[in-house]
Amino acid sequence: MAGGGFVSSGGNGDYEGKVTGFVIMTCMVAATGGLLFGYDIGISGGVTSMDEFLLKFFPNVYHKEKSVKNGESQYCKFSDHLLQLFTSSLYLAALVSSFVASITTKALGRKISMLIGGLIFLIGAILNGVAMNLGVLILGRLLLGVGIGYANQSVPVYLSEMAPAKLRGALNVCFQMAVTIGILIANLVNYGTATMKKNGWRVSLVLAAVPAIIMTVGTVFLPDTPNSLIDRGQKEQAKAMLQKIRGTSNVDNEFEDLVIASDMSKQVASPWGNIMQRRYRPQLTVAILIPFFQQLTGINVINFYAPVLFKTLGFGDGAALMTAVITGVVNVVATLVAIFTVDKFGRRGLFLVGGTLMLVCQIAVGSLIGSVFGLDGHGQFSKVLGDVTLAIICVYVAAFAWSWGPLGWLVPSEVFPLEIRSAGQSINVSVNMFFTFVIGQLFLTMLCGMKFGLFFFFGGFVFIMTLYVFFFLPETKGVHIEEITKIWRSHWFWKNYVPAEETRV
Ligand SMILES: OC[C@H]1O[C@](O)(CO)[C@@H](O)[C@@H]1O
Questions:
Q1: What global pTM score does this model have?
Q2: What is the 192 CA–ligand 1 centroid distance (Å)?
Q3: Distance (Å, rounded) from C-alpha 272 to C-alpha 422?
Q4: Which of 305, 313, 346, 449 maximizes the CB count within 10 A of its CB?
C-alpha cells in the first residue's frame, strides 16, 4: 500500500545513471497511484454527509440526523454499521487483494498488476457513480478496494525498482504527498458537488475514474522493470532495459547486483519463516507496531469523517465540508515540511515532536467536546468554540503529517534486510490496511459509545507510541541498509535479540 513497497538499495547504490525520461514517467505513475488512494480516503466522508446520498441509501441515518434537533444525543446521530461499511469495505478488499496482487506481481510482472489495478478501480468508480441501490454501491466500493490493493502493492515495487537508488527515499515521501493531495482534491470536489441540486454525490464518486484512467493509460506505455524481467528468466531484455532506463551502457555493476539479489531471493526458502526468528524481533516489531500506531493516532477519523464530525459539532452542511478542505490543505503543506526536514532533524525528532503535539490536541478536543456536550450528548457549540476546535484539529493534522504520516512508511522500509524484506513489507502494508478498516468501521459507533472520551482513547495510544519511539526505536537517518543490523545490535534493549557474532545485511 502507500509507500509500503519502497525498498532501500541492497547494493552499494553508487551505480552510474541519469534521471531519464523513464524515471520521470515512474514519478508520474507514483503520483497517480497515490492520488487514486488519497481520493478514496477523502471522498467518502463528504459524500456520507450529503442529505441526498443519505436519503437514498441510508434513510435511517438521515432521519436520525434530522430528529436530533428534538433532543437526542449528538454523539450517535451518524452511528450506523452499514454507513461505516460504505467507508471501510474498501480497505478490507484492499487488504485481501494486495496478497493476491503480490502473486501476480511476482509471476506476471509489475506492469500487469498495475494494469489490473487501474482497470478494476475504473469499473468500481463507474459502478459507484451509477449505483441504484446499496448493493451496487458497496460492490463498487469493494472493486475500488481491489484496485487499490493491486495498485498499492505493485506501484511502490515498480517505483523502487525503476528509480536510481539515490531517489528512492524521496520518492517514498512523494508517494505519501500524492496521497494527501488526493485527499485534498476529494475534499474540494465534495465542497463543489454538495452545492449541486441533484446527483452531487454521483459526480464525487465517479470522478475517481479520472486518476484511474490516467494510471491505466500511462501504464500501457511503461516497460516492466529489469528486476522483474530477470526474475522471470529474461536476462538479456533486462540488461537492455536497464541501459535504457539509466541512460548509459555502463550498467554492469547494477545488473550483477540485481541478478545476485534475484538468485538469493529464490534461495530464501521462506521469508515468512525468516522474519519469525528471534534475531529479527526488532524488525518484526517495527513491521507490526508502526502501521498499527499510525492508524491508532486516529488520523482517519479526520480524513474519513471530518464533515460528519463537524456536523456533529453543529456546523452547517457547507461549513462542515469546508472544514475538510481546511484540514486537507494543512495535511498537504505539513507533509511538505516532512520532506524538507526528515533528513535534517531525523526520524525520532519528528516522531517525538509530532506525537507530543498530537497528544496535547487530543486532550484539548476531548475536553472541549466534553464540556459542551457532556455525557448525555445534549448541547450546542458556539461559533467561537467550533472555530477553536477546528484550529486545534488543524494543529493535530499538521503534527501527524510531519511525523507518523510519512514516517509510518519510511521507517519500516529502512529497517528490513534483504532476506526478510518482502515479508516485512507485506506485514507492514496489511497491518496498516487492517487498522484503516477497523477505524473506518468503528469510529461512528465508538463516538456514540465512548463520547468525548474517544479523543482521550486515541490520545492514550499516542502517548504509548511516543514512549515506544523514545525507548525502542533507534534513529535510522542516513544509515545505509547494510549497516542497519549494527544499529539494533548497539541498542540498549534490542541487543539482547540480535546476535553479536555475525554481520548480516
Ligand atoms: O493523511 C494521511 C493518510 O495517509 C495514510 O496514513 C496512508 O499513508 C492514511 O491512512 C491517511 O489517511
A1: 0.86
A2: 23
A3: 9
A4: 305
